[in-house]
Write a structure and sequence with these properties.
The protein has about 270 residues and is an alpha/beta fold. It has helices at about 10-20, 35-45, 65-75, 100-130, 150-170, 205-210, 225-235, 240-265; strands at about 5, 25-30, 50-55, 80-85, 130-135, 175-180, 220. About 50% of the residues lie in helices and about 10% in strands. Strands 3-2-1-4-5-6-7 form a 7-stranded parallel beta sheet, sandwiched between helices. Bound molecules: NADP nicotinamide-adenine-dinucleotide phosphate (NAP). Keywords: Mitochondrion, NADP, Oxidoreductase. Belongs to the short-chain dehydrogenases/reductases (SDR) family. 17-beta-HSD 3 subfamily. Pfam families: adh_short. Its main location: mitochondrion.
Amino acid sequence: MPAMVTGATDGIGKQYAIELAKKGMNICLISRSETKLIEVANYIEQNQKVITKFIVADFSKGKIIYDKIRTHLDPLDIGILINNVGVMHECPDEFDELSEDSIWEMISVNIGAVTMMTKIIIPKMKLKNRGLVLNVSSGAHCQPMPLAAVYGATKSYTKTFTIALRKELAEYNVKAHLLIPMFVRTKMTDFTTTPKSGNIFFPNAESYVKATINTLGYYSQTCGYWNHNIQYILLNLIPEFVRVFIAHKVNKVFRQQYYNQQKVKQII
Ligand SMILES: NC(=O)c1ccc[n+]([C@@H]2O[C@H](COP(=O)([O-])OP(=O)(O)OC[C@H]3O[C@@H](n4cnc5c(N)ncnc54)[C@H](OP(=O)(O)O)[C@@H]3O)[C@@H](O)[C@H]2O)c1
């Protein structure tokens, strides 16, 4: 029974693919870069006795990619779907400063992929009366996110979509679970220099997934990492308008750090 991971060539998705393979699962990887997919697939097969398959697909292209994905997945009996793929703009910024391409990319990748991959995979799971869909949301779904307004909204979509689906799928013994990472050091969060890798508050993808893999299938909703669960609980004790205020302040700091990094790069 293979597992499938979207956005499997870097960060959290790549680590999920590696950890699931360690558990003996065959893995189907989907991402946009064939070179990186081959690298990850080879790494997994060299280190674990499992079979990998990969599909090259750019989720930012929207509707046109899903027929090809469906055809590739037809012969497979996916037992676990990790809807991980996601994008953010290069750094927190005001909505009207974002390019239209960047806005469409977030909508197509963060909303389109979780929706359509689930649509493709669940009919077989329902038929077989088993399966798990893990949708990766974000701490950004806790409140509106000034300077990451679209990104935060896409993650709120993931949350409500998953909770609704969970109810629908329960009678078929198919689980729809939500993973809520807080800050994880990956390519996506390169805009900030503050949290260093290895820090217990801001783990890198490897440490984060090594912890969170143990929660897979057990919790309908979790941050997957003890420290992130504490942050999530504390955050939700604060009134929303205060959370929005804090999110705005923090994103302003991140944006400034990004601009400072860019200036240093220009000088070098
Ligand atoms: N990092 C955090 O702090 C954090 C916090 C909360 C939630 N999350 C969520 O966790 C998930 C993973 O984030 P991450 O930090 O691991 O991101 P990441 O390191 O940037 O990795 C993203 C993965 O998605 C792939 N990808 C990006 N755009 C794609 C596209 N158009 N088509 C196909 N594949 C594409 C990337 O491929 P390439 O290798 O080609 O780039 C990469 O494999 C996302 O949903 C994110 O929103 C992250």
